[in-house]
Design a protein that fits this description.
single chain; alpha/beta; 6-stranded mixed β-sheet
């Protein structure tokens, strides 16, 4: 039999009713889906667009239509179809589905169906329509789908229509589109609550949730997936997607539970097992993480990654021998990975195995390891006594890395190799700047000026000058010095903190607060940094934020007199209602 193609016009509804219209449109769509794999019949959905009378009038989609034979034939011809199918879902006085099959070439109706739809029998109308259409075209009916009750079926149709609305609104009204997707998800959950075996609802909900990974609205679909897994606990894909969404929104413990449920129903892929292990690490369950990672066999493409994570875990617990062994397995079992080789080299250097560390560092650099691998190589070369080779590596490093922590450490190491005299003056001046007597500050500043004259990008020298300026009460000079540090090493915690203090000295509280807060975030275990951040908020009048920071600081160091003084000032202000 020659293939037949049928243009399916979205069905209309009578009387006009929002829910009936949605049902009619989506029954047409589901009939198209039923014939998706049919060997001799191809169904093509018609998208009807009404054009404005003038260019200024917007076009819009016609959701349902009941064209006569001539117009239906035109729709079919526009899609190159041999036939066109149009229909009407009649709701009153009794329900029925009325369909018309039109021959496009002849522009006339060649078959009609008037199928009664008693209460509870709405799903049967779709089945009957598909069977009738196949018979009218002289072909076999598409295979039947799982039976579903009307309550669940109607909820599925509602959800599908909300998905269409979301698609249409996506370009013009993102918020309304998001609301429509949320309504669709809720209706699919309603369908599953009415009938847990409603496969169509589960499939559509899973598709929506998976698409949220690309849209970035994962949080919206956590609750619907929780509903799905509650009603259909055997849905391994539901548990898996729930785990992925929870992972992405930062709920590590919830993600672990969902992934474990999924794994019990359908074994996780090795890549997912590694993600689960990393979640266990975040939750502080290192032994569970190791158990997961050790299940990944050497023949798996994920084996090198698993060994890398095992090596990191071993470092955290201080077992350098096990860490080195795991990273050796990672390095030898897959493509040469620069970062893995660099981590292995660092561990070998820490163990004192300098020849192998140097070899691995060099290999890591060839394989594209980050710049700090070259810094590690230079340190290993210095430790092995080859300062000349170390200096060569450091010059190469600073040729490509000018700003940041790695460059800062590289300059400091290079200074010690090439200018021991300046290093001595820098160390002496730094000690004086931090806690030396006031009478030594002028000499220290002179030493620092000499160091900067020879090596202008040493952050330590500028930092020490800033400390001296602050001790001398020169807030402007201190600020300039600390800003120079941050230009060389952005987010250097000590420079951020000291800059914040210098700004407070200059009564620039609004500028100081973000600096002090940034330093406290970078050093969350430093009670002094947290206390000063709290004091900055106190000076800014943000009493709640001040109390939050000071409470953490006093918990970290209950005996710190400065934190106690800040808390006393906070209490006084809260009592008096005004700052001092």
């Amino acid at each position: 039999m020659a293939p037949r193609s049928v243009a399916v016009v979205p069905f209309g509804a009578r009387p006009a009713d929002p829910r009936g219209g949605a049902w009619a449109r989506q029954i047409a769509r589901r009939i198209v889906d039923r014939f998706a794999d049919h060997p001799t019949i191809e169904l093509k959905p018609v998208f009807l667009v009404a054009m404005g009378d003038t260019p200024s009038q917007a076009s819009y989609l016609v959701f349902g239509s009941t064209p006569d034979a001539a117009l239906a034939a035109q729709y079919g011809a526009s899609l190159g179809a041999s036939h066109a199918l149009a229909g009407l879902l009649r709701l009153e006085p009794s329900r029925s589905l009325e369909l018309s099959l039109v021959d496009v070439g002849q522009k006339k109706e060649i078959a009609a169906l008037a199928h009664p739809v008693p209460d509870g029998a709405l799903p049967d109308a779709e089945v009957a329509a598909a069977a009738w259409l196949a018979a009218a075209l002289g072909a076999d009916a598409p295979p039947p789908s799982a039976a579903i009750g009307e309550a669940a079926y109607a909820a599925v149709l509602d959800g599908m229509d909300d998905e269409v609305n979301a698609t249409l609104l996506a370009a013009s009204d993102a918020a309304q589109a998001a609301d429509a997707r949320a309504r669709a998800a809720a209706r699919y959950v309603d369908a599953l609550r009415a009938e847990p075996s409603a496969v169509a609802a589960e499939e559509r909900l899973l598709v929506l949730a998976a698409e949220s990974l690309e849209r970035g609205d994962e949080r919206t679909f956590v609750e619907p997936l929780e509903g799905l897994t509650e009603v259909v606990p055997g849905s391994w894909r539901g548990h898996y997607l729930l785990g992925e969404l929870r992972r992405l929104i930062g709920d590590a413990s919830g993600a672990v539970v969902a992934f474990e449920h999924s794994d019990a129903l359908h074994p996780l892929r090795d890549a997912d097992s590694i993600r689960l292990a990393e979640l266990y690490i975040k939750a502080g369950a290192d032994s569970s993480a190791r158990s997961r990672l050790r299940r990944i066999r050497p023949e798996s493409p994920e084996y090198p990654h698993a060994q890398d994570v095992l090596g990191v875990l071993a470092v955290q617990r201080g077992d350098l021998a096990e860490a080195a062994a795991a990273l050796e397995r990672a390095a030898e079992s897959g493509p040469r990975d620069g970062p893995v080789l660099a981590r292995l080299a660092q561990i070998l250097a820490a163990k004192g195995d300098l020849p192998r560390a140097i070899e691995r560092f060099r290999e890591a650099i060839v394989q594209g390891a980050p710049a700090d691998a070259r810094l590690g190589l230079a340190r290993a070369l210095v430790a092995s006594g080859d300062a000349v080779a170390a200096a060569t590596e450091l010059h190469a490093l600073l040729g490509i890395e000018r700003v940041g922590e790695t460059a800062a450490h590289g300059r400091r190491l290079l200074l010690g190799i090439e200018r021991r005299d300046l290093e001595t003056r820098l160390e002496r001046a730094g000690q004086a700047a931090v806690g030396g007597p006031v009478e030594r500050l002028a000499a220290a500043a002179a030493d620092l000026d000499a160091v900067i004259g020879a090596q202008p990008d040493l952050w330590e020298a500028h930092f020490a000058l800033g400390l001296i300026a602050r001790r001398n009460g020169d807030a402007e000079a201190a600020e300039a010095a600390f800003r120079r540090v941050l230009a060389l090493w952005p987010e250097q915690p000590d420079a951020l903190h000291e800059l914040g203090v210098a700004l407070l000295m200059g009564d620039r509280t609004a500028d100081a607060v973000p600096m002090l807060d940034a330093a406290a975030r970078l050093r969350p275990e430093d009670a002094g940094y947290l206390a000063d951040a709290g004091f900055g908020q106190l000076r800014a009048g943000n009493l709640e934020a001040a109390r939050e920071r000071l409470a953490i600081a006093i918990e970290l160091d209950a005996d710190d007199p400065i934190t106690k003084a800040y808390l006393q000032e906070l209490a006084r202000i809260e009592t008096a209602g005004r700052p001092n």
